[in-house]
Amino acid sequence: MFDIGVNLTSQEFIRDYDKVVQRAHEAGVTGMIIIGTTMLNSRQAIILAEKDVKYLWSTIGIHPHYASTWSKKINSEMRKLVIHPCIVAVGECGLDFYRNFSTKKEQMYAFQAQIELAIELHMPVFLHCRNAHKDFMSILSPWIPTLKAVLVHCFTGTQSELEVYLENDFYIGITGWICDTKRGADLCKLIPLIPSNRLVIETDSPWLIPKDIFPMPSSRRNEPSFLPHIMQKVAILREDNIVNLSHQTTCNAHALFNLSSNIRDIII
Ligand SMILES: [Zn+2]
Questions:
Q1: Residue 122, annotated as binding a ligand
Q2: Which first-to-last residue range defines the signal peptide (predicted)?
Q3: Which end of the chain, N or C, is surrounded by fewer C-beta atoms within 10 Å?
Q4: Which residue in 263, 249, 196 sits closest to 32, CA to CA?
Q5: CATH number of the domain bearing residue 119
């Protein structure tokens, strides 16, 4: 099974990074995508991925929270780094009007610029959308026919939002949000509606620990070894078995990020 979204460069993992990755292996996680959310952690993600090239890949992007940092300098730096063989998508980028850590205008500008970069380089986009569906789609729509692939990671939206994404053939990332009986109840109902070839699973570690994990770690830190727990819950909701589901969602991750024909395989 494949974890398509881990924030392994987070401070939360500094002390025991090796053990966290080891536990992911032992739990049956066969690969992970490290999410880049700033220029600094995108660079750190490349360093981590380079150390474990058959297991870790990375994205490069400016998260909407940090959209105010967008500049010509970042744009040109990203252009240089994005061709690194460990990088498999542009993002995490998008819009977050829930927190508005950057202004709406800054978020929209950085989002648009990163979409253009992805198109130019024929790369998939790794997207974040929170409380911004309308603007998100109006920025994205003109580019959809030319985008290689689109992932809406950590989907927590409504049925009508999901339908729009699926009409456009987007991949949908599901996290342990569904393990929260209160907050995740609406999302749980939508899980069976996602076509099996569009579903991918993620922990979004260290955030979003599944609320029903037992025993609950005292740190409440999420980690990729909890992916089977989320997979099990998705399997129940879809009335599928975990082996099929793990296989299918891993194949989807490979197709989405073009991992099998990734240039590094040729280099190695
Ligand atoms: Zn996100």
A1: no
A2: none
A3: C
A4: 249
A5: 3.20.20.140
